[in-house]
């Protein structure tokens, strides 16, 4: 069996129990070496073969998978965070489907939730935002025109921007154009949950300078929105005046 496993954002204990068990049983592990902590590999059994996909092509990855399956081996394709978000797993799964090779996908903790936890905030606050937008700025990988960062920012929703800190100036300008103001709170979280995690807080007015001062050029989440520091209404779920299926109002 081939298992696509989300390794989590960095801290090795943020992998799921199911993902850890699959690693322990694996005969072959193909891991995203540029982002996944190698400490995950210490949980593998003796004799397990490791392949760092950072230096491999899609075809080379598939060849190793196919060869392992033909030998009856257990294979883990270890992706950073959650494999379904910017994981490039679709192209792998399509080829496996063509070859009639079965596989499974095991979710993981994404860096966007890890980053929000690092700054001790909540994306969805009553009367502030009930929507979270996950996106990235255009780089070597294009973005559909109707998903331009400026247009998405105009909704005023909570945002988590992946793979974009290297273009922080461009990101900020597009966000300013979308939000139509410069006092929008923003957080840049470098390597969320890793030992060398850094958190930079600011607004659209000053975040670029702060990020540059910290030397952050990659491996960071950009979180934007009033959920970071705005006022909010108390949740009805635990309000004593609110009745729901499991509790009657007490006031």
UniProtKB/TrEMBL annotation:
Keywords linked to the UniProt accession: Cobalamin biosynthesis, Methyltransferase, S-adenosyl-L-methionine, Transferase
Gene Ontology BP annotations: cobalamin biosynthetic process; methylation
Keyword hit for Transferase: yes
Leading EC class: transferase
Top-level taxon of the source organism: Bacteria
Domain called Tetrapyrrole methylase: residue spans: 1-207
The protein, known as: Precorrin-4 C(11)-methyltransferase
Organism: Anaerosalibacter massiliensis
Membership in a protein family: Belongs to the precorrin methyltransferase family.
């Amino acid at each position: 069996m081939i298992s696509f496993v989300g390794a989590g954002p960095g801290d090795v204990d943020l992998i799921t129990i199911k993902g850890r068990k699959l690693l322990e049983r694996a005969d072959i592990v193909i891991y995203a070496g540029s982002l996944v902590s190698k400490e995950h590999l210490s949980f593998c059994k003796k004799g397990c073969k490791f392949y760092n996909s950072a230096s491999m092509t899609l075809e080379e990855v598939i060849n190793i998978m196919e060869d392992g399956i033909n030998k009856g081996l257990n294979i883990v394709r270890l992706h950073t965070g959650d494999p379904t978000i910017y994981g490039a797993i679709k192209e792998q799964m399509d080829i496996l489907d063509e070859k009639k090779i079965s596989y499974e996908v095991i979710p993981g903790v994404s860096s966007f939730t890890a980053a929000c936890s690092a700054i001790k905030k909540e994306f969805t606050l009553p009367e502030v935002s009930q929507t979270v937008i996950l996106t990235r700025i255009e780089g070597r990988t294009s973005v559909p025109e109707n998903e331009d960062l400026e247009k998405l920012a105009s909704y005023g929703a909570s945002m988590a921007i992946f793979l974009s800190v290297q273009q922080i100036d461009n990101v900020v300008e597009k966000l300013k154009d979308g939000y139509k103001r410069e006092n929008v709170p923003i957080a840049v979280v470098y390597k969320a949950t890793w030992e060398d995690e850094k958190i930079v807080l600011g607004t659209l007015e000053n975040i670029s300078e702060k990020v540059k001062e910290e030397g952050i050029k990659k491996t960071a989440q950009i979180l934007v929105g009033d959920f970071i520091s705005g006022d909010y209404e108390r949740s009805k779920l635990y309000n004593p005046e609110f009745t729901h299926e499991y509790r009657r109002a007490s006031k």
